[in-house]
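sorry to bug you again but im stuck and you know this stuff better than me. what follows is a protein written twice so to speak, once as letters and once as structure tokens for the fold. mainly i need to know what kind of three dimensional shape the backbone takes. anything you notice is useful, everything is just below:
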Amino acid sequence: MLQLDVSGRPQAWITTREAAVIYACDGVAWTLGDPCQVLRGGWQRLSGRQSRIEVHSIIAVRGAVPSRAWRQAPALSNAKLFARDRFVCAYCGHRHDVEDLTREHIQPTSRGGRDTWMNCITACRSCNGRKGSRMPEEAHMSLLYLPYVPSLHEDMILRGRRILADQMEFLLASVPRNSRLHG
């Protein structure tokens, strides 16, 4: 399930069980889409009815979220970096399997480069080895695309979960049109 804050900003991917707790505690402010799961509980003694919770794939949770959480760049990982760059080497332009990809620092860490979204791109092992610890221009290699910091909506997509159609539609609606995720 995709958990949002009350204003519609993504907060986290949560399990059905965690969503059920939020529903049971009356913590859901609003939902989107049709229910994707129905959870059934015990039988009420007086009425004979079974309790049930219809869980939606997108739920907004009551309460405030610390604003500092939305000012930070998403955590950088190889899986998210490769997904951001669509598994394409920034030097040769070929699409590769994950096993043949590396995190490439445009300005090498040995020369003061930092491990950030803006200094990292996806490169195949061959191109990364050819560039070595040189700057791209020193190795006579040019970037075919530029790095960028993913938005928080993009980050939710890049986390590599199975995303339902309505969740993807919701997230992509806030992703810039020039993002590689639309491609």
Remarks:
- Helices lie at 16-24, 78-84, 125-131, 152-158, 165-172.
